[in-house]
Write a structure and sequence with these properties.
Two copies of one chain form a homodimer.
Chain A (H helix, E strand, L loop, with lengths): L1 H35 L2 H32 L3 H34 L10 H24 L2 H26 L6 H34 L9
Helix pairs in contact in A: 1-2, 1-3, 1-4, 2-3, 3-6, 4-5, 4-6, 5-6
Function (chains A, B): Plays a role in the regulation of phosphate uptake.
Keywords (chains A, B): Cytoplasm, Phosphate transport, Transport
InterPro entries (chains A, B): PhoU, PhoU-like_sf, PhoU_dom
Chain lengths: ~220, ~220
């Protein structure tokens, strides 16, 4: 009975880590769709988002069943509660990748991004994918040092996000208001994606230590 | 013992409803700060956000204690799990009101909004406050008809949000890129605030029926 219980707890973590892998792949594809005006890739991300929603629903059901049937306490209870939070965060990461893909599709065959900002979005995409991949690893390993790394990566994302505003506010911006609106929202989607990855890692810190790290500045 | 348990469950709902009241007041003040370039009101919202964060932490602790000590099942378990989700949504509503207040402070003593869009933001503020107030009532009453009303209010918010983009993309927009960036983000903050209020109401539907309503389109 306890073995089966432990298997269920491990299965829940494994499901969440897999979900992180899905949204890492989604952000990678969405970023390429955005940079290359690749409609096929954008459509893939849009179609596949339902998979993330399904895994989230399954993870929640599994967490609910664990609470109802096993009444976990202490660390095990923290694992289940953190999984409920984590599933929500990771689903949102998938939604944000979806929004990026939708922007690429909406403007197709035109590129969404002026050439001068494309490299920053390539970098935001890279950092975002790295954050989701690291969050998956932290869910599996519960390694606190690895969890702390996500904070540093998120600082890099915040710098890129702030820099986008500097570029937009520059008097030399000559791509008009529509492009500025797109860049504003897209940069925010990447930044929020990163925040949710950090939130997932912080919940793992809470699982291990019983304490939440300081609040995320958003 | 069971009486005390029921009191704890009711106390949790009451705490969440109170938290909704706090973020309704925050959005109301933030909107007035935005429309009237009122620095004092903006500062109030910024200072008071920590209260919402505190109530959220208390609600989570209370939910955790209920799970650990009472091992609720069925409807009671749904109440506690929904409270965990709801606390997260409502805290985020507070953060979004905070972001609006920060925008008002950042541009002070200049107004953030061009005159032509101010009435739309007044309306988004009104709808947002109404959504938070209705969410509080739904948490208390668990009335499914009242929960359904939030969907309609959210449609009104989505229409206002879409309309902002039409105004921004219009060739007659002559307020420059910086104002367009502010309007884009601010409109998104209101729209996300509304989404979170709807999510809270949907969790109450789940408490009562055991089924989540269809997914929120975001």
């Amino acid at each position: 009975m306890r073995d089966q219980y432990q298997e269920q707890l491990d299965g829940l973590a494994s499901r969440l880590a897999g979900m992180c892998g899905e949204v890492a792949a989604a952000l990678d594809k969405a970023t390429r769709a955005l940079l290359d005006a690749d409609l096929r890739l954008a459509e893939e991300v849009i179609t596949e988002d339902v998979n993330v929603d399904t895994i989230r629903a399954e993870a929640e059901e599994q967490a609910f069943a664990l609470l109802a049937l096993q009444a976990p306490v202490a660390t095990d209870l923290r694992i289940v509660v953190s999984a409920i939070h984590g599933a929500g965060d990771i689903e949102r990461m998938g939604d944000l990748a979806l929004h990026i893909a939708q922007a690429a599709r909406r403007r197709h065959p035109q590129p969404v991004l002026p050439d001068e900002v494309a490299p920053y979005f390539a970098e935001m995409g890279r950092v975002g994918v790295q954050l989701a991949t690291k969050a998956a690893a932290v869910i599996r390993s519960r390694d606190l040092d690895a969890a702390a790394e996500l904070e540093t990566d998120d600082d890099a994302m915040d710098d890129l996000h702030r820099h986008m505003f500097t570029v937009l506010m520059d008097r030399h911006w000559n791509h008009g208001v529509a492009a500025a609106v797109d860049v504003t929202l897209l940069a925010r989607f990447y930044e929020r994606y990163a925040d949710h990855a950090v939130a997932v890692a912080r919940r793992i810190v809470y699982v291990v230590t019983g304490q939440m790290p300081g609040p995320l500045t958003v």
